[in-house]
Amino acid sequence: MKVLIISTNRNKFPAPVMPVGACMVAGAAAAAGHSVSFLDLMFEKDPVAVIRSMIERCRPDAIGLSIRNIDNNDMRNPVFFIPEMVPLMRAIRSTTASPVILGGAAISVMPAEVLTALAADAAVVGDGEVVFTKLLDRLEQRKPLDGLEGVLHRDHGVVRMNPCLSSPETDICPAPDYRHWVNVPAYRSQLSATPVQTKQGCQFQCVYCTYRMIEGSDYRLTDPARVADVVARLAASGHADIDFVDSVFNAPYDHSMAVCESLARAPHQARLQSLELNPLHFDDTLLLTMERAGFVGMGLTVESASDPVLRGLRKGFTSREVHRAAEVVRRHQLPCAWMFLLGGPGETRETVQETIRFAERSLRKQDVAFFTVGIRIYPGTELERIARKQGLLTRAPAEMLDPVFYVSPEVEAGWMINEVNRSMGRNMNFINADTLNHSLLPAINRIGYGLGLRPPLWRYTRFIRQGLRMVGMDA
Ligand code: B12
After folding, report:
1. How far apart are CA 446 and CA 443, in angstroms?
2. N or C: which end of the chain has fewer CB within 10 A?
3. Distance between CA atoms of 376 and 337, rounded to whole angstroms?
4. Contact call for residues 310 and 304 (beta carbons, < 8 A)
5. Which residues of the chain are modeled with pLDDT < 70?
């Protein structure tokens, strides 16, 4: 079949991200013998026009539409991306009668809602590289999609979901052939690092999280030696910056250690990073091995330094692990970005102050604290149940595509935002969601790259904020 994959993500905040999943799906379809064309809308000026001309040129028998983000998870300045898909769908429908199949993280999080909003023909939940080719086979043989695991389809106007793959027969390919599908230099010039997965799945139970909906809760681990080979191959072909995009990089601990050891032995020249570390499986041995492996930055998702909140969020660790993680970080050189999420179940003014006090006292000045206030509620999460029980959420799941946020009834959002802003005034290494959505960020990425900076940009936060303030800008 002639297949066109369209990656629809155009979001450049905090940096453009390479469409790893869409490229994997395209690679799998090509390997299965289909003739695959790829359209990446990230840097396109007129997406509607380019979609029309691409369809006219390659006359696809099926179109795969990859949708990454539903929204930006920002309560203060929410950006809702699904409405941007409507004109794209209209352009497709007015140019071809071929079926449109949706896929991507946004679909795994709210499949029926997005399928309905865009009136697509079918959607794939979870591992697209396995399911999409099976779906293409069915389309080619003009067979119905009934019973095809992980597929949502319309049956006489009714959306039907076939249960997801229970044990996907995936041989995880941690990195597709990016250069074949996307404009890699354009991404690099905006400080984008190349995504690589060392595993799929997440066993944590955080109340707000969607990761288990996307990747499942069973780990599927890639052979550490294979990860190192892939990194070495990517680095040799110009991908100098690699970002490990696992749900949690350092869990299971033994696997992440083995990955780091393989990387330390491998003759690669890549600069490595991952923003997805957990304080539970975090010690000096891991950090030493990460440094030897070539890491230049890491992120610790602690969310809070206060026990009632960590319990309310079901993080699976306590403030003891958070404080211990800070001690470990201080004994090493590796730059660290700390992620905090304020306003979850159990949050009060005291717990907010405890967390901010921790950040002010325990973080090194060269590290970064990123504060988000308010938590996006997704249907099917424990947070949805808590919000309904507390009477904070009345919208039906079908109406939750439009962003809806949780804020603990024991503390006001405005007060938390002010507290964070005050702390940011005292600490140039602290940032909030406004910083990540700063209108100058794409330009800063480009200029930074031109000046020789390399990802992750957050390592330069203090200097960028100070520079912007010196020229009278709000930062
Ligand atoms: C790592 C990560 C980041 C990193 C990305 C680094 C990088 N270099 O890529 C950073 C920290 C920068 C980031 C930023 C953001 N992220 Co993020 N991120 C992730 C994370 C943990 C992994 C993403 C990933 O690469 N997965 C691996 C690849 C292989 O999976 P995939 O792309 O989803 O593809 C698979 C399927 O989706 C499917 N598929 C994909 N395309 C297609 C197409 C077709 C046709 C088919 C059939 C199937 C299919 O098959 C693929 C292979 O199995 C996910 C959560 C998760 N566990 O998925 C959140 C996630 C994707 N992020 C999310 C969001 C919201 C964001 C941000 C908007 C802000 C924020 N607060 O995090 C920004 C947006 C950035 C941008 N410019 O678009 C959401 C998106 C959905 C939503 N809720 O709106 C997720 C799901 C987390 C969440 N909160 O729910 N993110």
Report:
1. 5
2. N
3. 21
4. yes
5. 163, 165-174
CB neighbourhood size of 361 (10 A) = 10
Tell me if 128 CB under 6 Å of ligand 1: yes
Residue 434 C-beta-side C-alpha neighbours within 13 Å: 11
Per-residue confidence (pLDDT) for residue 175, from 0 to 100? 85
CB distance 132 to ligand 1 below 6 Å = yes
For a pocket test of ligand 1, which of 11, 12, 34, 69 has the largest count of ligand atoms closer than 8 A to its C-beta? 69
Predicted pLDDT of residue 111 = 95
Closest alpha carbon to 462 in 421, 429, 426? 429
pLDDT of residue 127: 85
Residue 135 CA: which ligand 1 atom is closest?
A: 47
- Predicted local confidence at residue 473, as pLDDT: 87
DSSP-assigned letters across all residues of 264-286: HHS----EEEEEEE-GGG--HHH
Query: pLDDT digits over 408-435, tens only?
Result: 999 999 999 999 999 999 999 999 999 9
Is residue 357 within 8 A of residue 326, CB to CB? The reply is: no
| Whole-number pLDDT of residue 404 | 97
Which run of H or of E encompasses 25?
Answer: helix 20-31
d(CA 217, CA 240): 31
Q: What is the pLDDT of residue 171?
A: 54
Question: Is the CB–ligand 1 distance for residue 66 below 6 Å?
Answer: yes
Distance 67 CA to ligand 1 centre (A): 9
Q: What is the pLDDT of residues 268-306, one digit of tens each?
A: 999 999 999 999 999 999 999 999 999 999 999 999 999
Contact 37, 58 (CB under 8 A): yes
**Is ligand 1 within 6 A of the CB of residue 118?**
no
What pTM did the predictor assign? 0.97
DSSP string, 47-93: HHHHHHHHHHHH--SEEEEE---SB---SSS--B-HHHHHHHHHHHH
pLDDT of residue 173: 57
Ligand 1 atom closest to 72 (CA)? 68
Q: Cα of 105 to ligand 1 centre, how many Å?
A: 5
- Helices then strands, each counted (H, E), the chain: 20, 18
- Exposure on the CB side of residue 349, measured as CA atoms within 13 A: 5
